[in-house]
Amino acid sequence: xxxxxxxxxxxxxxxxxxxxxxxxxxxxxxxxxxxxxxxxxxxxxxxxxxxxxxxxxxxxxxxxxxxxxxxxxxxxxxxxxxxxxxxxxxxxxxxxxxxxxxxxxxxxxxxxxxxxxxxxxxxxxxxxxxxxxxxxxxxxxxxxxxxxxxxxxxxxxxxxxxxxxxxxxxxxxxxxxxxxxxxxxxxxxxxxxxxxxxxxxxxxxxxxxxxxxxxxxxxxxxxxxxxxxxxxxxxxxxxxxxxxxxxxxxxxxxxxxxxxxxxxxxxxxxxxxxxxxxxxxxxxxxxxxxxxxxxxxxxxxxxxxxxxxxxxxxxxx
Length: 317
Hints:
It is built from 9 helices and 14 strands. Strand 2 and strand 3 form a beta hairpin. The chain is α+β, with helices and mostly antiparallel strands. It is globular and about 60 Å long. Strands 1-3-2-6-7-9-8 form a 7-stranded mixed sheet. It folds into 2 domains: 3-174, Cytidine Deaminase, domain 2, CATH 3.40.140; 192-315, Cytidine Deaminase, domain 2. Helices cover 30% and strands 22% of the residues. The longest helix is centred in the first third of the chain and has 13 residues, at 38-50.
């Protein structure tokens, strides 16, 4: 194939649309067409991922690309984009690494092999990533231009990049095992909780939030929580709570579904405006932790015309 007549960005757009992810076969096709490794592909996708960013406060756009653990028959994996989101008037944000990981998790991935980021992850994200890797190898890839002496260099001409193993960036890490938890975050896809609503419903959005709650990760508080959106175009999206041993890097279900919606709707404010959110449902299991107040606060910043619909669950027996 003569790929000189079409740019990399055009080819990515052609085969993925605005889904925010590439299937394993898509990854294989791009690697073949442009004669690059999947790691080099991840680095080249970073500007595309960063284009989804909503960084009105810092104006610092960050992109991330996750390589899922599942492979096709030729050894290629699905890739998942992520970007940072900042909330006006709140000291709360979503980091690109969390966005990409959540994107992969919501697609059913039970782990990741590596993650590419625009620059070395901050301490917050290193802690978040440790929750899903523990002592298992997890490689961090960054462009050469942002490399530090903690990273090694993979020489491949214009497709060169820098890489490091997570534990080299987070020595003496505190993680799940320190709190007696042997389950890693993304492995929770294999452990669906048996939750039922305190009042049953046949509402699709409520049940979508309930399903998200059953697949959430809250081994420390048992605050299994899911959030679902209905947007103006009629699509429904959901996100899950992802707890962290250090707690602060935990990912709220509202932020998870907001990120997924942005990635799925095209990213730019021309494609998706927060005012396009029509309904928001939060479902959670009662515990010492609650997502209700933070969800209400975040929703009021995004779209104060929408009232949160709140439901609790009980464990089924």
